[in-house]
Structure formats: C-alpha cells, structure tokens
Design a protein that fits this description.
Largest sheet: 6 strands, mixed
Oligomer: single chain
Radius of gyration: 23 Å
Strand content: 15-25%
Number of helices: 13
Structural class: alpha/beta
Distance between the termini: 35 Å
Number of strands: 13
Shape: flat
Length: 378
Amino acid sequence: MVKEQINNERLINMLQAGIVGLPNVGKSTLFNALTASGKAEAANYPFCTIEPNRGIVIIPDERLEIISNIIKPKAITPTAIEFCDIAGLVKGASKGEGLGNRFLANIREVDAIIHIVRCFEDPNIVHVSEEPDPLNDIETINLELALADLATIEKRKERIIKNIKAREKSAVLENKVLDKLTGILNEGKPFSVDIFEKEEKPFVENLHLLTVKPVIYVTNVSEDNITGEDNPYVEQVREYAKTHNSEVAVVSAQLEAELISLGKEGAKEYLQESGIEDTGAEKMIKKVYELLNLRTFFTAGEPEVRAWTIEAGTKAPQAAGKIHTDMEKGFIRAEVTAYEDFVACGSYATAREKGVTRLEGKDYVIQDGDIIHVRFAV
C-alpha cells in the first residue's frame, strides 16, 4: 500500500486558515473533524479553547490517486492547508474582553478566515446571546475586527505624524490611505486591497488588517439538516454573503465528527447509503482553496507522486522553485503534460508519442492539473 505523507519541509510557508466565531458555535468540533485529531477540546462552555489549536488538513483531490494508479509510486504526497482553531471572540474583544487582544493577534497571522455561524437550535448547548441569531453573531465578530483595525490605523498615524508635518511625500500618501481606510471601516463597508491604487496598496498590505482577509461563512447546521435546505438561518447568511463578497459552506460539525469515529471505510459506506458525494467539510476545504485563488500542479515519478500548491498566475520558474530553489535559479524548460491528456494516454511514453507533452519556457503560466518535469542547470 502506498503511504500518503506530509513531509516537514511542506510546513514551511504553508497557507493558514483560521477558524473563528462566537463561543459555542462548533469551532473546535469542526476543527477536530477537519484534522481528525480530536486534540481541540470541545465543551459546552465559553473559552474552552485558549491557545489556538493547529492541524494540517489534506486538500481532497482525486487526481492524485488516479495519477498514482498509473505511475505506481513508492509514496504519495498531497497538498495541504494548516487550519487554526482560534478561541471564541466576544463583544468587546478589540478592547481586551474575553482575552480578545490575544485572539485577534492569532487571527492576524492567518491567510483566510473561516467564520463559523451557528444555524441550529439546541437548548442543551449554551449560546452567548441565549438563542441563535446568525446576522447578529456575524456583525459582532465583524465589528470587533473593524475596531481592531481602526486601532491599528490610529497607532500607525501616530507613528508617522512627524513625517506628515514635515510633508514627506511617502508619509503624506500613507496618511491619505489611512484616512481612506478609516472612512471605509467606519461605514462598515466590505472592501479589498484592489480598490486602492498601485502606489497605495503597499501601505494597506503592511498594516496586516483583519477586515481585508478573505472570508468563508460556514453555517453549522444540525445532523438532520445537512444540506441547509429550508433553514432560515442559512438563508440569512447566504443573503449576507452575497453583499459582502464572501462564500458560504453548509456543514454539520457534529455529523463530521461522527463520520471520523466511523473510520474511513465506515464513513464512505455511510455517505454512499445517504447519497452524499462529498462531506460538508470536504466541500469547505475546497472552497478555502478556491477562495485563496490557489492552483495545484503535480510532479510524478516512481519515487513519488506529489501535489504542489501555487497561486493562480504563477509562471513555470516560480513553480519549479516550490520544488527546489535550485530549479528556479537554473530553470531551462518545463516538460508539461495536462492531467486529462496524461490520464487519457496512460503513460509518459504514450503522451510523448501523441505529442501532448510539450516543452514550455520561462513565460509559461502553470495551469491547474499540469504534470511537470523541470529541466534545470545548477
């Protein structure tokens, strides 16, 4: 049996997604299901998570297995994202309530936010507002993130005030950007770095604001409502997301946790009997991947078939650098075969014979699913 592995070198620069939300909305339960670790305490009281739990989650990709069935490698290495279970935020977090400053700092480190929203009723599970109110819950978190960003902006203005008074060009431009950000945050408008001019963007990016991070709203539903159909709470979140440039995923954290307890084969059998192709967690993971505008390419040989993560638009030399820095430095050409062509041909030899394998140079943009072999000189 071929062993799937995540090597330590993969952890370097791995993208992170932070799971956030109010206390008792299912964050730790979902985290445990995603990572199949069970290491995050899930309890019926606020702040059962203090330090963020971290776990590596494999990106589901059936192409990796199909390529491996052709190549028959000694090892398979999937691509992955690090998930971080951040303790529940509460109203006043930006002012330190509920250990808020600490938690906000944890959110600042991640690349994307997975915002868990409780969309089920259960009198046995405490809700900080007594009963579920998805929109109010979302606004509570978003307000705290905005207030924290406003504080960051104010501190930055204080640091450059002397430079502004001296009319230094850079400081004057930065102050203009800070004022623009203040206005946007005070109005509560969703925004991205793309609304700023090219020369303004570096100032925004250097602030590491919480409110510009891409967000997926995950509606945590009950086990008997896994699709979220006819759930008014889920519909409220979907409508909200439409006007806030966000995505929505429907997940039953409790069901995901129970599937883990069944084991891989047991869970697969249960899903087949229930007519479910992908679990809510798998769909959510794929959405995170899409949200971060990521793509996957493969390297495939007898020692190993491996998936690699890159941002959309990455050119061949930079993709090669993900494999090894020497490959980027000494890049000559990339031998590229599209996934569909490789599978149709059934081997490298046939792919070359049919002319579907091609040589690409430094300006080639790697496409999702490309299988590449890099030619380089040290």
